Amino acid sequence: MQDITIRPARTTDVVGIHAVIQPLVDSNILLRKDLVVLYEAVQEFVVAETAEGEIVGCGALHVLWRDLGEVRTIATADSVRGRGVGHGMLVALIERARELGLERLFCLTFEERFFGAHGFVAVDEQIVDPDTYRQMLHSPDAGMAEFLDLPWVKPNTLGNTRMILAL
User: Fold this and answer.
1) How many domains are there within the chain?
2) What order of strands is seen across the sheet that includes strand 161-166?
């Protein structure tokens, strides 16, 4: 991975982020993200960039609550898969979560082995208290609905594993 840099995303990276995730969207591995959504969330992303300036990976950290964040949209291009790029991005996102004071990170994933190798464990139960759950229901964010396991997102999340990491 020596020729790849992990860094915070910029608005000029959004088209490259979109290109990296689109094949995974087409395969029903990731949820579709419109360009406008990516621009709105660009500050949450890190990217993996080659020495030539090509974006070959991305991942985002989204704060869900006072102590809880979510790793979202972590993806790599086929050309770099298996070279440690995903690992580098996840390490950067975990470090950012610690800097923000988060205590737990959540993910909804098909990649149990990858996240498990980084300390995430599968969970079935609700991981927030009932009062927090009720407050989180007010969020318009689709990712929050996935986290809360609301019925209207079920068709998009079937087969995914809910995982959590204590920081």
Assistant:
1) 1
2) 4-8, 45-50, 55-65, 68-76, 104-109, 161-166, 121-122
**Do 78 and 94 form a contact (C-beta atoms < 8 A)?**
no
CATH number at residue 43: 3.40.630.30
The structure's pTM equals: 0.84
Question: Which has the closest alpha carbon to 78: 103, 57, 51?
Answer: 57
**Model pLDDT for residues 10-65, shown as the tens digit of each residue:** 999 999 999 999 999 898 888 888 999 999 999 999 999 999 999 999 999 999 88
The single residue listed with the structure tokens 């360009």 is 35
Instruction: Give the domain range for residue 104.
Output: 4-166
What's the rounded Cα separation, in Å, for the pair 125 and 164? 11
What are the respective helix, strand and coil percentages of the chain, to the nearest 5?
40, 25, 30
